[in-house]
Amino acid sequence: MSYYHGNETGMSVGLLPDPYYWWEAGAMFDLMIQYWYYTGDDTYNDVVTQGLLAQISDDKDFMPTNQTKTEGNDDQAFWAFAAMSAAELNFPDPPAKQPSWLALAQAVFNEQAHRWDTTRCGGGLRWQIFTWNKGYEYKNSISNGGFFQLAARLARYTGNQTYADWAEKTWDWMETTPLITKQYNIYDGADMSNNCTQPIELQWTYNVGTFLMGAANLYNYTNGNDTWRTRTTGLLKGAQLFFPQQFGGNIMQEVACEPQVSCNNDQPSFKAYLSRWMAATTQMAPFTTQDIMPKLQASAQGAAKQCSGAPNGGNTCGRTWNTATWDGKQGVGEEMSALSIIQSNLISKVAAPVTAVKGGTSKGNPSAGAGSNTNPTPADPILTRKVTMGDKAGAGILTALVLGGLLGSTWWISFGN
Fold this sequence. Notes:
- This protein is an all-alpha fold and 417 residues long.
- The chain is 46% helix and 2% strand.
- It has 15 helices and 3 strands.
- It has helices spanning 22-39, 45-54, 73-88, 101-114, 141-158, 161-176, 205-221, 226-238, 270-284, 289-306, 332-343, 381-384, 389-392, 399-409, 411-415; strands at 138-140, 189-191, 199-200.
- Strands 1-2-3 form a 3-stranded antiparallel beta sheet.
- The relative contact order is 0.15.
């Protein structure tokens, strides 16, 4: 935690330094909630709470004034995932005057449901929220998959069928497009200019992962509905693409960029999310455990090898889990992915996520976010004010030191017995 400077004078609480974008900080806090859940170590809880609450707006949603110039639906979803994890895992509640974790997730759901767009492609969410941002004319799988997952998890936690209906609606819409195939391949997205008929056929771990997480939650919510069992099984088969047979079929790889050594600053973190969501799937749909656990175990072994061998004994992790020595890559995404896959091997040691009627303490607000202005005009002062150094300042990397301790404490999971 000595690398975290978000609570120091002049720094922006809850943000990672350049070149990392806002959404990845939300994903990082989600990862640290899971770290607490798996280990019981509450060292970082106050910092996580502070970081999450610093990125809400006056409307009690994840639309902070320092991000509304560029925020996309997928970005907002990752912060909602963190709030949803906090509710499901009984992470300590925020101070009394702050919105609850559940209410923050509900606010994002309500705002995104309001953005459902039928002008072209028959429905779905656009990638971007604001008309002037590049990508506004693109409907992508991670935005729609994020909304799908959030709705599914809210349905399970609250028992409210409306959320399940929206999840079903999102799945049905995806099936009307070429973004999901009969083989459960999930493509990146499609441009609205051709009515979403020509997909960008890149496949990423987090796209199939977010749909897998949503489908497994709906399987659980529906008490084992055959349709959601079939879809969960299909998505798990679709995810096999990211476990190449040339490396034994169980070691995760970001196939769209790792082999070409072309991953950008975002993409090294994607494996963190598939790792997390595959582990959670074993809780929501236990019939998947036999297929998933060998992949989590073998990938954790590979990640651990990438977390040793850095110059001068540096505590950093590489990217390519299928190689035995550190590959020279390092960054927030690599650290997050390694921590996520390693701690996911503890999934059988922890209790299942709670619900509102089974152990949950986070109290919701079904109307949260309903009155927010999520589409301000260009004249809005939020959008025209000068960017300050505080906006650009980072919060630091939480996982750098945590990973070293966790590697030692969980080594037996990957290598014992």
